[in-house]
Design a protein that fits this description.
The complex is a heterodimer of chains A (99) and B (155). Chain A is built from 4 helices and 4 strands; from the N terminus they run βαβαββαα. Chain A starts with a strand and ends with a helix. Chain A is globular. In chain A, 44% of the residues lie in helices and 21% in strands. Chain B has 155 residues and is an alpha/beta fold. In chain B, α1 packs antiparallel against α2. The longest helix of chain B has 14 residues. Classes of the chains: A alpha/beta (99), B alpha/beta (155). At the A-B interface, α1 and α3 of A face β5 and α3 of B.
């Protein structure tokens, strides 16, 4: 099966996105998914959807609701609040994307 | 060496707003030569667009930062607010967080950044450590952060 692609978006595409990307990879690996991630700035999301074709987007910034890709807030990876629920939702979304 | 030292810590930061707290800490980083003169404006602009308040358990924090091009060498400046200040909530345009501890990150892209962020996030999610931080003086706060941030776990 081809790797599932997850796009990580944040304000500067460096500080928080790096940690969120690693956390998403860990979460996916624990659930048996091998994923590929890419990071971008929030303003670059639409362009990245064209070039990277992500199955899922995880953002630490508000994002438009009309992206056409399942989108989740990555803030629980930083705050710890709501983390278990987020992991469950991500795994469910990966399962759905994997068909 | 560590990510911070007592000269970058303000244990009783007085600020009436998030912008004031950011300006005070950012000027400190600038005076000590860690960031360029564009840093404070860049952090303020980023905070307006993408807030960094985190609704962590019990004691809430903010991690204002800017793009790497405004940073000369990496460091973290820390302010503990006697009176909490409202920051916007990360990821939620309508949310606000009453922040007690501001960790201003001046970071550059590097291998060390990955473990720094991992350690910082686990520190910020630990109310026991944050309770010590809000009661501590500058030397103690620097020691707590440097100890927690240098934890080398296998990645």
């Amino acid at each position: 099966m081809a790797k599932l692609r997850v796009l990580i978006a944040c304000g500067t595409a460096i500080a928080t996105a790096t940690h969120v990307a690693n956390s998403v990879k860990d979460t996916a690996r624990e659930a048996g998914f091998d994923i590929e991630t890419a990071q971008c700035k929030a303003a670059e999301i639409r362009g990245k959807i064209q070039t990277f074709s992500p199955h899922i987007i995880v953002a630490t910034t508000p994002v438009p609701s009309d992206l056409g890709v399942p989108t989740f807030s990555g803030v629980p990876f930083l705050s710890g609040i709501g983390l278990d629920q987020l992991k469950e939702e991500l795994i469910n979304a990966l399962k759905a994307a994997a068909g | 060496m560590g990510w911070t030292d007592e000269s970058l810590i303000i244990p009783h930061l007085q600020a009436g707003s998030d912008a004031e707290a950011i300006t005070t800490l950012g000027n400190l980083l600038y005076q000590k030569g860690y960031v360029r003169d564009t840093f404070v404006a860049a952090v303020l602009e980023r905070e307006r667009t993408f807030a960094t308040g985190l609704p962590t358990p019990e004691i809430q924090v903010a991690i204002p930062h800017a793009d790497v091009e405004h940073v000369i060498r990496p460091a973290i400046a820390i302010g503990v607010l006697d009176e909490p200040v409202k920051f916007g909530e990360m990821g939620d345009p309508d949310g606000t967080v009453n922040v007690r501890i501001v960790c201003m990150l001046a970071v550059t892209q590097s291998e060390a950044l990955v473990s720094l962020l991992k350690n910082l996030v686990s520190l910020l999610q630990n109310p026991d450590i944050l309770r010590r931080v809000v009661e501590a003086d500058a030397t103690e706060i620097a020691a707590i952060f440097n100890e927690q941030l240098s934890n080398l776990e296998e990645v």
